[in-house]
Design a protein that fits this description.
This protein has three domains: about 5-70 and about 305-430 and about 465-505, 3-Layer(aba) Sandwich (Rossmann fold), CATH 3.40.50; about 95-290, 3-Layer(aba) Sandwich (Rossmann fold), CATH 3.40.50; about 510-545. The protein is built from 23 helices and 13 strands. The termini are far apart. The strands form three sheets. A six-stranded mixed sheet has the order 1-2-13-12-10-11, sandwiched between helices. About 45% of the residues are buried. By secondary structure, it is of the alpha/beta class. Helix 15 links the parallel strand 10 (about 330-335) and strand 11. The structure holds 6-O-phosphono-beta-D-fructofuranose. 6-O-phosphono-beta-D-fructofuranose (F6P) binds near residues 152, 154, 205, 207 and 267.
């Protein structure tokens, strides 16, 4: 396979990066008063301002050339039409089909999967309404008041992030809880205040083999049976979402209580499937459909907009520019909307599990940096914790700032303070303040020369730190759907340009396998002396200390 590094655009970008490293964004803004117009997109779901990146017209032209040389449009078509682009698992990648609200037929292996999806949605609708309206009863005839979703990774992060983000849209007819950690503290804390007669468990696991989820589901079953004294209660209190019906049935879940998933939906892209059941129960099925509609709107934008005006393409190319060409190694996700407090955790899995890889589709070593590590926190909290690093450390961390024009919970005087910070931070990161300005400022405040000499270097902010700003009108099921789909497609484009298989996750297997072996040692209180000395020492210490 031809390496991306041999592409003409790649080589030009490499040379161009050396030139651009000498530039400063504040100068680029001074030179071009139209910079915001040139480098922003106003789409119905959001405004994307990417002018505060170390780019000029030539940079963007070269990046679009790169996208063309990598045949992004053809790859996009392959994904939407169900080609088996998940090469190492020989699967199609069709999470977009789950939100295909135009209901156009999508053929996979001579079958129109749009029909299957509609059927699954109907099942979700019927079930979620039954639970919400109190028509689904527990073993003692009482209505369900609490739903506990048991799942981890993609079977947890998506639904939990969305229910947290859309809290204001919930009528609280049912309380939704999440258990993902196999640390018993979490499930114990969740179950303690609940009444087993009124709890419904959703065991969400695509594979239905994930140890953490199975352990939590077993504990939940024991808790229920201990209260009901009857295993027939399970049918009234347990449903599953899985592509592995056989395992779910063997586990004890009634066949009619299993919601289907398909192998063409990756776990981290699965919130649009029945994995989103807790969302539908929490918010109502109509809201869930609005979420799908928002994502579909963005899918259409991604499919139809020219590359030069295509938000996911632009975000992907900028990430590649910042990381692969300019050398940034991490990226911060900084939501200023409280609703999005789980977004960075969600995107961590989405981007890092998808593209954190170092061989190409053909298994050849990749010689360039792929994706950055993703991290972040609510922006305001971050300002009082780690923004010092963003402003003055000698590592450049490109950041996405995400905010809303209107708050979903207006409280007088709050939103202006929030948004003033939102705007100020990207300005400060871009402009910085040089020593001359710092000295002039201190002198104007009447500081002595000695003081100025001592303090001035510490107050210099070099600026030139890249940010994207995504401004939604307001968090809603629809706008959130669009925002998530924006990042999903960004990740797809990154994967194609960087030549990594975005839809497998072999890197999680090694640790899982070793954990299974070590668990046997811990259970039997034996030890395999062939462990390396560190692991051996740790396990021995643990086993001698444990009571
Ligand atoms: O271990 C990683 C992973 O396989 C993720 O890709 C997935 O989202 C998560 O575990 C949960 O998997 P499952 O839904 O099969 O339990």
């Amino acid at each position: 396979m031809t390496s991306r590094t041999s592409l003409a655009s790649w080589q030009k970008l490499t040379a161009h990066a050396q030139e651009m490293k000498k530039a400063h964004m504040s100068e680029l803004f001074s030179e071009n008063s139209k910079r915001f117009n040139d480098f922003s997109l106003n789409l119905p779901p959001f405004l994307l301002d990417y002018s505060k990146n170390l780019i000029n017209q030539q940079t963007m032209e070269l990046l679009f050339d790169l996208a063309k040389e990598c045949e992004i449009e053809a790859w996009r078509e392959k994904m939407f039409s169900g080609a088996r682009i998940n090469k190492t698992e020989d699967r199609a990648v069709l999470h977009t089909a789950l939100r295909n609200r135009s209901l156009t037929p999508i053929m996979l292996d001579s079958k129109n999967i749009t029909d299957d999806i509609q059927q699954a949605l109907n099942q979700m609708k019927e079930f979620s309404e039954k639970v919400r309206q109190g028509r689904w009863k527990g073993y003692s005839g009482k209505r369900i008041t609490d739903v506990v979703n048991i799942g981890v990774g993609g079977s947890n992060l998506g639904p939990q992030m969305v229910t947290e983000a859309l809290k204001q849209y919930s009528d609280n007819s049912v309380n939704v809880h999440y258990v993902s950690n196999v640390d018993g503290t979490q499930i114990a804390n969740v179950l303690r205040p609940l009444n087993p007669e009124k709890v419904l468990f959703i065991v969400s696991s695509k594979t239905f083999t994930t140890t953490e989820t199975m352990t939590n589901a077993n504990t939940a079953m024991k808790w229920l049976v201990a209260s009901s004294f009857d295993s027939s209660a399970i049918a009234k209190h347990f449903v599953a979402v899985s592509a592995n019906k056989k395992n779910a049935i063997n586990f004890g879940i009634a066949k009619e209580n299993i919601f289907d998933m398909w192998d063409w939906v990756g776990g981290r892209f699965s919130l649009w499937s029945a994995i989103g059941l807790p969302i539908a129960i929490d918010l109502g099925f109509e809201r869930f459909i609005e979420l799908l509609e928002g994502a579909h709107e963005l899918d259409n934008h991604f499919k139809d907009a020219p590359l030069e005006q295509n938000a996911p393409v632009i975000l992907a190319l900028l990430s590649i520019w910042n990381c692969t060409f300019l050398g940034a190694q991490s990226q911060a996700i900084l939501p200023y909307d409280q609703s999005l407090h789980m977004l960075s955790a969600y995107l961590q899995q989405a981007e890092m599990e998808s593209n954190g890889k170092s061989v190409t589709w053909d298994g050849e070593e990749i010689s360039y940096p792929t994706v950055p590590s993703i991290w972040g926190e609510l922006g305001i909290n971050g300002q009082h914790a780690f923004y010092q690093y963003l402003h003055q450390s000698n590592n450049i961390v490109p950041a996405d700032f995400i905010g809303s024009v209107e708050s979903v919970t207006p409280v007088q005087g709050h939103h202006e303070t929030l948004m003033a910070n939102f705007f100020a931070q990207t300005q400060a990161l871009m402009q910085g303040v040089n020593e001359e300005q710092v000295r002039a400022d201190l002198a104007a405040k009447g500081r002595t020369k000695d003081y100025i000499d001592k303090v001035a270097p510490h107050k210099v902010h070099k600026g030139n730190r890249p940010t994207n700003t995504i401004l939604l009108n307001q968090i809603s099921p629809r706008s959130l759907g669009s925002l998530i789909a924006l990042y999903e497609h960004k990740i797809f484009v990154q994967g194609i340009v960087l030549q990594v298989c975005s839809f497998d996750q072999w890197g999680v297997e090694l640790g899982k396998g070793l954990a299974n072996k070590i668990q046997k040692e811990l259970t039997k209180n034996t030890i395999n002396t062939e462990h390396d000395s560190s692991t051996l020492g740790l396990i021995t210490f643990y086993q001698t200390k444990i009571k």
